[in-house]
Amino acid sequence: MADLSSVYCGLKLASPLMVSASPLTADLASVKQLQSAGASGLVMPSLFEEAVRSDAKMLSKYSDKIKSYKDALDIPVFASLNGVTEGGWLEHAATLEQAGCDAIELNIYYVAANVNESSDQIERRYIDLVYKLRAHIGVPISVKLTHQFSSVAHLVKRLEDTGVNGVVLFNRFYLPDIDVETMTVSPTLQLSNSSEALLRIRWIAILREQIRLSLAATGGVHSLDDVLKTILVGADAVQLCSVLFQKGVDELGRLRDALDQWLDDKGYVGVDSIKGLMSYGRVADPSGFERANYLQVLEHNS
Asked: Where do the Dihydroorotate dehydrogenase catalytic domain residues begin and end (predicted)?
């Protein structure tokens, strides 16, 4: 049997297979089932500052849920925080830490819609926030990022310099739709597919040899091949969600066992033996992750 363990944000996971923030991690019965099925860690649904403002008991409820999860589970529990104000981020993060979570994932949901705000100003908001949080709390911090930055690599390096422990690539925002009959804007929820994993694979490959912090992939990981690719380019953790809605939580165990079998069949002793083998700095032709790959695709399909 191969050693499936992996270290993410300083926490040892029994395998890279975590469960991302979703309704699946919203109640005690469900998370117990996830652990039994093979989850190595989980991220709780986000605590939104707006929800705390509208219901003063929301923060204490969330804290109580952390405590109940930690009492019942043997796997790392990541709280997820989505704030609005600096005071809200700092106060709520401290409360979640005190409740006993193993780490905090910052779900910084921000749509850059102001034409007068530069990309540097937006990045600085992230950096300033994480810098203050890092000085305020002691548990590991991961930052869940969108791919919609002008320089993803530069931002990740700046985040690393603040002392953050990991980044999660990439957040899948709910996109607004328009009901043409009622002339209203409504949110839509679409499950991911394997093609979305390629964006995560590309950026993890590019980042792996340039930074030291932990990297997690989320979005589009549905099959053993998807899991293998994310690990081969350097991911320390793979956060699953849509595939569990589609195939059930037992898919965690099937993917874990398939990963174990693949490693044994190929003669690898464990996950660490393959982690990063196909990253940008280690493949024979790294241009495949850059512009050259675009040109090759055009040539092959012309």
From this structure: 61-261
Candidates 55, 1, 16, 4; CA nearest to 270 is 4
Q: Which of 249, 263, 237, 271 is nearest to 31 (CA)?
A: 249
Rg of the chain taking only CA atoms, in angstroms: 19
DSSP secondary structure code for residue 286 in this structure = G
The Cα–Cα gap between 243 and 42 comes to 15
**pTM higher than the cut 0.85:** yes
Q: CA 217 to CA 71: how far, in whole Å? A: 27
The secondary element (H helix, E strand) that includes residue 101 is none
**Which of 14-28, 58-72, 83-97 shows the lowest mean pLDDT across its residues?**
83-97
Domain ranges of the chain: 6-300
- CATH number (3.40.50.2020, 3.30.70.20, 3.20.20.70, 3.40.50.150) of 6-300 reads 3.20.20.70
Q: How far is CA 55 from CA 47, 49, 50, 74, 239, in A?
A: 12, 10, 9, 30, 30
Structure-token pair, residue 160: 């690393």
Give the containing element (helix H, strand E) for 24: none
Give mean pLDDT, residues 171-182: 84
Distances (CA, A) of 6 to 65, 147, 227, 231, 238: 26, 25, 13, 10, 10
Give burial (CB, 10 Å; 0-12/13-18/19+) of 173: exposed
Question: Would you mind telling me the total number of residues written for the chain in this entry?
Answer: 302
Place of tokens 């923060």: 59
Q: Which residue has the tokens 């600085």?
A: 124
What's the CA gap between 271 and 7, in Å, rounded? 10
CA–CA gap between residue 236 and residue 242 (Å, rounded): 19
Write the Ramachandran bin of 254: left for phi over 0, alpha for psi from -120 to 50, otherwise beta. alpha
The tokens 């104000």 sit on which residue? Answer: 85
pLDDT band, very low/low/confident/very high, at 127 (cuts 50, 70, 90): very high
